[in-house]
Design goal:
Layout lengths: L3 E7 L4 E7 L4 E7 L8 H18 L10 E7 L5 H8 L7 E6 H9 L5 E6 L3 E7 L2 E6 L11 H16 L7 H8 L5 H10 L2 H5 L2 H9 L3 H23 L5 E4 L3 H5 L17 H12 L3
Parallel strand pairs: 1-4, 4-5, 6-9
Antiparallel strand pairs: 1-2, 2-3, 6-7, 7-8
Helix pairs in contact: 3-11, 4-5, 4-9, 8-9
Protein name: N-acetylglucosamine kinase
Keywords: Kinase, Transferase
GO molecular function: kinase activity
C-alpha cells in the first residue's frame, strides 16, 4: 500500500487537516476547533484528531489507512519545546508524527522551503524568519504577554475602551456602544464573560474594530492605528533579522496589508502555498520522500 501524508495547521481559531497521496493528490480535508497548545494539550489533541478523522472520512478511508500515514503538524504553541514534547507523547495512530510551530510550517509553505519570513496575524500573532537554516522568532509568546497586533489583543483593547466609554471615562462611539450591547449594557455581564473568555473569544471582536475604523469611528481608528504600529515594528524586526521577503498570513492579514506603510511593499510577498502544504512538506522531508 502506498504511503499517505497528512498536513495539520492548528491555530487559536481552528484546526485544518489535508490528506494527500504519495503523488500529492488531495484525498480529503477536515476541520476542527481551536488547537493552541498553551490552552490545553487535551483540547488541541481532540481538535487535531477530529480534523484528521474528517479528512480520512472524506477520502473514504478507514483507521487502517492511518498506519501508513505520515503526519506533519504545525501547531500554535509548539514553539515551546516542553509543550511540543507533551503533544508528541500523545497517541495519534499514524506511521510517524512530526510537530513544529505553526509559523514554521506556514513559512515552509509560503516560500516553498526557501529562506524568507512569515507573520501570522490571526487570533494570535507569530513571526518567523528562516535564513540559512536558522530560525528566528518575533512575538508568538501568547496573548497575556505577547502576540502584538493579534485579534485577541485588539479585541481585548476594544473591550476595555467599551467599558471605559460606558462609564464615561472616555467619549463613547459606535464601536463602544455595539460592544456594550452584546452584554445588554451591563458591566457585570461583561465581567462574567471576560473571566471565562479565551483568546479566540477576544479575537471575535477584532473584525468589528477594523470595520468601525473604516467608518471613521474615533475609538476604532485609535485602536487600529496602535495595532498597525505594533505590526510594523514586528515587520521591521524581521527585516533586521535578515528577511528579504515576508508573507502575511492569517485571518487579519488582509486587514493589515492595506494599512501598512508603503515602504514595506518591497518586502511583502504573497504566500506561494499555504501552511497545510508546508506541513505536508515537513512530513515528507522527515521520511525522506
Amino acid at each position: 500500500m502506498n504511503e499517505l501524508f497528512l498536513g495539520i495547521d492548528a491555530g487559536g481559531t481552528h484546526c485544518r487537516a489535508r490528506l494527500v497521496d504519495a503523488d500529492g493528490n488531495v484525498l480529503g480535508s477536515g476541520r476542527g476547533g481551536p488547537a493552541n497548545l498553551t490552552w490545553g494539550i487535551d483540547k488541541a489533541h481532540r481538535a487535531i484528531m477530529a480534523a484528521s478523522a474528517e479528512a480520512f472520512a472524506e477520502a473514504g478511508l478507514g483507521r487502517a489507512a492511518m498506519r501508513r500515514t505520515h503526519a506533519g503538524m504545525g501547531i500554535a504553541g509548539a514553539d515551546d519545546p516542553a509543550q511540543a514534547r507533551k503533544m508528541a507523547a500523545r497517541r495519534f495512530g499514524f506511521a510517524s508524527v512530526t510537530i513544529r510551530g505553526d509559523a514554521e510550517t506556514a513559512c515552509i509553505g509560503a516560500h516553498e522551503g526557501r529562506d524568507g519570513g512569515v507573520l501570522i496575524l490571526g487570533t494570535g500573532s507569530n513571526g518567523l524568519v528562516r535564513r540559512r537554516g536558522k530560525l528566528e522568532r518575533v512575538s508568538g509568546d501568547g496573548f497575556l504577554i505577547s502576540d502584538l497586533g493579534s485579534g485577541a489583543v485588539v479585541g481585548h483593547a476594544a473591550a476595555r475602551q467599551a467599558l471605559a466609554a460606558h462609564q464615561r471615562v472616555i467619549a463613547p462611539s459606535p464601536l463602544t456602544r455595539r460592544i456594550m450591547r452584546r452584554f445588554d449594557n451591563d458591566p457585570s455581564k461583561m465581567r462574567a464573560w471576560a473571566m471565562a473568555a479565551t483568546p479566540s473569544h477576544w479575537g471575535e471582536l477584532a473584525p468589528l474594530v477594523f470595520a468601525c475604523s473604516d467608518k471613521a469611528d474615533p475609538v476604532a481608528r485609535r485602536l487600529v492605528a496602535d495595532a498597525v504600529a505594533d505590526v510594523t515594528r514586528l515587520l521591521d524586526r524581521m527585516i533586521a533579522l535578515g528577511a528579504k521577503r515576508i508573507a502575511l498570513t492569517g485571518g487579519l492579514a488582509d486587514a493589515y496589508a492595506s494599512r501598512l506603510p508603503r515602504r514595506l511593499a518591497r518586502i511583502l510577498v504573497p504566500a506561494q502555498r499555504d501552511a497545510l502544504s508546508g506541513a505536508i512538506d515537513l512530513a515528507r522531508k522527515m521520511v525522506g520522500t
